[in-house]
Structure formats: C-alpha cells, structure tokens
Design brief:
The protein is mainly α. The protein has one domain: Rossmann fold, CATH 3.40.50.1010. 53% of the residues lie in helices and 11% in strands. It is built from 6 helices and 5 strands. It is globular.
C-alpha cells in the first residue's frame, strides 16, 4: 500500500522519530510550505521553539521531504475546490484528498476532521495506524 502524507503527519513523523515510514511514499508539493508554517507558528506564536532550534529543524525538514515523492497539482484547482466544498474542508486539505484519490494512495493525516470527512472519498489513516 502506497501512502500520501499531509503536513501534519510529516511533522508528527519527525517529532516521533518515525521518518523511515515516509521513505518512498508521497506528499504534495505544498507540504513544504505547510510544514514551514507549523515551524513558524511554534517559534513565533507558541514560542516553544527557539530560533536556533527552528534553524536546525528547517534543515531536517528539507532532508525529510527528500524521502518523499512529490505529487504536483498544477491546473487542478476547479476539481479541488469542488472536493473542498463536498467534504467541507479547506482547499489545502482537499488538495491532499484529491492527490490521494487520483494516484490510488491512502491519505495519512493527524487531522481527525480531515480523516473523518475524507474517508468517504479516499482511504485514510493516521501515523499510529501504519
């Protein structure tokens, strides 16, 4: 079974030191920005990670993302927005569901709302279920 990881599961795999599960699987090209945004939130809003630690994590994220194959979503906006409306999720979340469905992949997410809503459209798992 091939898997498509969203940003929440990529970040969780890093935190839980389970990055080996990512090897050879998939994500979308937007994931780097979403993981980067998570780091920014932790540093700037939650203030539970310092500047030096974030700098190290950015380098780690770059290495980890190289383990994954990237699914490009160019020119699919009309279909993705329909999925977002149908599932009641954000455009970002619908992008992961769309990519998983169109590539016969199981969507891995730590977002319970996305996992629950997307399971009618595509197979879903959390990291702990792998």
């Amino acid at each position: 079974m091939s898997l498509l990881f969203d940003a929440s599961s990529i970040f969780e795999a890093i935190v839980e030191k389970k990055v080996s599960v990512l090897q050879g699987n998939y994500t979308i090209d937007l994931a780097v920005y979403e993981v980067g945004n998570t780091l920014w939130k932790r540093m700037s809003l939650l203030r539970d990670i310092g500047d030096a630690e974030v700098a190290k994590l950015v380098l780690l994220v770059k290495r980890v993302l190289k383990l994954l194959k990237k699914v490009k979503l160019d020119c699919q906006e009309e279909e993705i927005i329909k999925i977002a409306a149908r599932l009641g999720v954000t455009f970002y979340d619908a992008s992961y569901a769309f990519a998983a469905k169109n590539n016969n992949l199981t969507l891995v997410t730590e977002d319970e709302k996305l996992r629950e809503r997307a399971k009618s459209y595509v197979n879903t798992l959390s990291l702990r279920e792998i």
